[in-house]
Amino acid sequence: MKNKMLANILYGKNEPLLFKETNIPIYKPDEVLIQLHASAFNRRDYWIQQGQYAGLRYPVIPGSDGSGLITQIGESVAPILKGKAVIINPGFFWGENEKAQSPKTFKILGMPDNGTFAEYVSVPAAYVYPKPPHLTHIQAAALPLAGVTAYRALFTRAALLSGEKLLITGVGGGVALTALQFAIAVGAEVWVTSSSQEKITKACELGAKGGVSYKEPDWAEKLKKSSGEFDVILDSAGGEGFVELLNLAAYGGRISIYGGTIGTIPALSPQKIFWKQLSILGSTMGTQSDFQEMVHFVNKFRIIPIVENTLPLSEAETGMKIIKNTNQTGKIVLDHQQ
Question: By the 8 A CB rule, do 118 and 317 touch?
């Protein structure tokens, strides 16, 4: 087997990804070597390039999501895995507490360890799962990080049920779109917000009942007039607009937070939280059980991730520029076979 591969390497903060030759990873006894057929971007990759992420280490090959074939296995790995088409759970070493990840051991593929924007990646065998057979490698690569994050936030944390009313803020990103697909599949009534009418229209085409632009000064009032209050709210923004979510939540509602792109939440009213018996739930990635259940869910409902852009592996820097503009509706995927 050859010992060199092509990969996209980040050498420092605010530097472009360089597509160049490097060594194929050396796999440990409990690891597998995967020849990647596709990988996908997450906003995390952009923040790493900007130097706005914890535990930065350069040089590094970014990328958390990938789909491909197992080509080599460590000596303690079951031989039947060799040659299998797989996806990777990018959240490693969660720890023993199912309620929260261990800050001492938990890490995400692509930082600090080398990730999937390369021809090959080595990962612990425990974190590979059969590729859903109804998905191509391109579609499957778009699933892991967004899928497990959406699944845990919606079902493990917020316990969304069929028939409940759900609000997803900032629809258009990978997690939000995946959550929309998951919620529609179980029979929830879904509403959305976005800065783009085009993204709201796309969400409605996927099954959302309606939505509003959060750029409108009275967006929450308009939404409440159309939809009523929400049993579950899924938010990744935070910021000043979060206060409106307390008003939009039904009595006994659950607000599940998986990000904070806008920033700190000011003027949060404890009175509204305790009087309405609200639950505010933080959620990050997911456990091995969450990932396994998510894959089963995707197979059961034949969910197909939304892919907007496909680029060759050599054009990963172009993908970073698309992510920066935040105009896409769906995932950006690198096709390693181009």
Answer: no
Q: How many CA atoms lie within 13 A of 249 on its CB side?
A: 25
Q: Is the dihedral of CA 201, 143, 155, 241 positive or negative?
A: negative
The Cα angle at residue 182 between residues 177 and 183, in degrees rounded to 5: 95
Q: Tell me: the pLDDT tens digits for 287-315?
A: 999 999 999 999 999 999 999 999 999 99
Please give the radius of gyration of the chain, using alpha carbons only, rounded to the nearest integer.
20
- CA 180, CA 183: separation in Å to the nearest integer? 5
Residue with tokens 């990646």: 121
Instruction: Let me know: does 329 contact 173? Beta carbons within 8 Å.
Output: no
Q: What is the CATH architecture of 4-143+305-335?
A: Alpha-Beta Complex (3.90)
Helix (H, G, I), strand (E, B) or coil at 197: helix
**d(Cα 237, Cα 101) in Å, to the nearest integer?**
21
Question: What pLDDT does residue 262 have?
Answer: 85
Tokens representing 310 are: 């496909």
Domain layout of the chain by residue ranges: 4-143+305-335, 148-282
Residue type for position 327: N
Q: Could you report the per-residue pLDDT of 222-238, keeping only the tens digit for each?
A: 999 999 999 999 999 89
Cis bond before residue 144 (omega within 30° of 0): no
* Average model confidence (pLDDT) across the chain: 96
Q: Which amino acid is at 267?
A: A
**Prior bond to 305 cis, omega within 30?**
no
Q: Which fold has domain 148-282?
A: Quinone Oxidoreductase; Chain A, domain 1 (3.90.180)
Same fold, 4-143+305-335 and 148-282: yes
10 Å CB burial of residue 297 (0-12, 13-18, 19+) is: middle
pTM: 0.96
